Amino acid sequence: MTTGEKMKDADTIFRELKPAALDELAGDAHARRRDGDLARAMHAAAAPRRRARRPVLLVAGVAAAACAAAGTVVLANGGEPASRPPAAGREAVDARTFLLASATAAAKAPAATGRYWYDRQRTSSEVGGHRTVVVGKGPDARKVKKKISYRASIETPGEGWLARDGGKGRKTSGPEKLVFPTAGDEARWREDGSPRLVSGSNEKRIWEGPSQPSIGSDVVSFKELASLPTDAGRLQAVLRDRYARDLKASENPFTGTFTAYLWETARDLLAGPITPGTKSALFKVLAGQPGIRMIGRTTDRLGRPGMAVAVKEAPDGGANATESRLVISAKTADLLEFRMWESGYGTGVTTYEKMGWVGALGARL
Question: Which of 107, 145, 252, 258 makes the best surface tag, with the fewest CB within 10 Å?
């Protein structure tokens, strides 16, 4: 087996670790509107490609969390109906001002390194509407498409260790858990015959092997990440060059605007091992982009306070609107949570519980 074949096989295995329910949410949006599907797994197995964006990642993307995730609160919108995105307190400060302040905070963080980049996430996706479910058990089990009259959320924990030298790493996903926002929703699910809504495995899945981070469709080394510019102008030039190449990709090219490309790439980079200087420059580049708006104060599903900034798309004049949000700590400029909401499809969330350098495979923060 060639090196390329090994990487392709590893990538296939890793994709199977992703929460399938969240893939369904993101996949539908992505098929209709590529540039609006803004969630990407930073830490995918090493193989050049561009995949449909997932709002739940398995690791730093466990990207993989697409989505989305954490804590015990079930619905990503705190129980709000899926007809509107989650609310947050409005702030007088605009997105540009906040992102520039985040750049200042990021630059003050101490530089660190280690043998493995560790990430622990919890992803969650709402289920509802018309959905494929599994009814029956054993040899009588079958898949059927039906309308769900109750609300529920699929939660999936995940962890990842990526070796700085590109050697053996590890990613885990699951077990998935079905959670209901109210006792009434659970009762209606039971009255419906308790169909299996969790489309992935109920067991914890583990993948081990070489893997590397990526920027856009390109796999990169940790050395390349560490050498990304710390000057905003130079960093923007690098990212625009990568954007131009992804537009011309022969397989599954990116079709969105530079702002959309930057937004999803920023989510990847903020969840990864970039230097404080690069992180600061990235916030400055974001601050100069159109279409990024301030939502305001919020808390993630671990109860940590943060500020939410968002990108919203309504290419059909308001129909099938998609909004994705980054929740960022105002104190440390750390990425706390990613949220994606789509009209008629609900919400997917990735909560970044822990991320940072550790000294050994299996070590945790």
Answer: 145
Tell me the two tokens of residue 47: 């193989």
3-state secondary structure of 271: coil
Task: Give long-range contacts, CB 8 A cutoff, 24+ apart: 314-323.
Answer: 315/33, 315/36, 319/343, 320/29, 320/32, 320/33, 320/344, 322/29, 322/33, 322/36, 322/37, 322/38, 323/85
How do residues 13-48 score in pLDDT, each as one tens digit? 444 444 443 444 443 443 333 333 323 333 333 333
Decide which of 303 and 143 is more confident.
Answer: 303
- State the burial class of residue 100 (Cβ atoms within 10 Å of its Cβ: 0-12, 13-18, 19+): middle
Is the peptide bond prior to 290 cis by the omega test (within 30 degrees of 0)? no
Helix ranges restricted to H, 206-301: 222-226, 232-247, 258-270, 276-287
List beta partners, residue 269.
Answer: none
Is the Cβ–Cβ distance between 142 and 135 less than 8 Å?
Answer: yes
The one-character DSSP state at 71 is: S
Structure confidence by residue, pLDDT tens digits, 81-123 = 344 455 554 445 899 999 999 999 999 999 999 999 999 999 9
CA 196 from chain center: how many Å? 24
Distances (CA, A) of 329 to 94, 112, 192: 16, 19, 42
Q: How far apart are CA 35 and CA 84, in angstroms?
A: 20
Q: By C-alpha distance, which of 161, 129, 158, 159 is closest to 146?
A: 129
Distance (Å, rounded) from C-alpha 250 to C-alpha 256? 15
Q: Is the pTM of this model over 0.85?
A: no
Residue 346 CB contacts under 8 Å (≥ 6 apart), including other chains:
25, 76, 77, 82, 125, 126, 127, 128, 129
User: What residues contact residue 38 under an 8 Å CB cut-off, 6+ apart?
Assistant: 53, 260, 263, 264, 267, 311, 322, 324, 340
